[in-house]
Design brief:
The chain is α/β, with parallel strands linked by helices. 39% of the residues lie in helices and 23% in strands. It has helices at residues 53-63, 86-105, 116-123, 129-140, 152-166, and strands at residues 2-7, 13-18, 29-35, 38-43, 46-51, 72-76, 112-114. It has a five-stranded mixed beta sheet. The protein has a two-stranded antiparallel sheet with strand order 4-5. Helix 1 packs parallel to helix 2 (86-105), helix 3 (116-123) packs across helix 5 (152-166) and helix 4 (129-140) crosses helix 5. It starts with a strand and ends with a helix. The relative contact order is 0.23.
Length: 169
């Protein structure tokens, strides 16, 4: 099974993972991976980053083209925690809407949105970013795709994809 996993956000990432649940002892494989494309926009008194819709559309056109073998798409569900600012809430909502729109435009209106606690619990992934990266390294038997500390989103995107491959529905 080949799954596209997305860890959303302006520092988010995506990963395509190939995983065959029937092959015991064969580790899942990261086929492709990268950071979500962003652009800088000027807002009032400061610059801010947003997903680059045009580049995201082009990326998904390549990744999700019919015949390329993506069986499932799984996106971590964005939720606003109590106490976040209105600016952060807007940014989270905008990011979720962009991802939903672009995925739907490429024929993936039935992608799976999973809560962070669900995939982390299923794969025994700690909340700490460094520990999550270490867990991904253990499950994929390599850290070649996330060698730097800042690559934790890439590791989490791969874990989200792995969760999608191993979960039902």
């Amino acid at each position: 099974m080949r799954v596209l996993g997305i860890d959303p956000g302006v520092t988010g990432a995506w990963a395509v993972v190939d995983c065959c649940a029937d092959n015991k002892g064969v580790p899942p494989e990261v086929v492709q991976l990268g950071d979500l494309p962003v652009r800088t926009i000027h807002m009032s008194r400061r610059d801010t980053k947003r997903l680059d819709v045009e580049k995201l559309d082009a990326l998904f056109a390549d990744l999700l083209a019919p015949g390329l073998g993506i069986d499932r798409v799984v996106v971590e569900r964005l939720t606003g925690a109590p106490g976040i600012t209105s600016t952060t809430a807007f940014s989270l909502g905008w990011t979720a809407a962009v991802l939903d729109t672009v995925l739907t435009a490429h024929g993936w209106k039935d992608y799976k949105a999973t809560h962070p606690s669900a995939w982390k619990r299923a794969l025994l992934v700690p909340a700490d970013k460094s520990a999550a990266k270490a867990r991904a390294t253990k499950l994929f038997r390599s850290d070649k795709h996330w060698p730097k500390e800042k690559d934790h989103n890439r590791a989490e995107a791969a874990l989200i994809a792995l969760y999608g491959a191993l979960s039902k529905g």
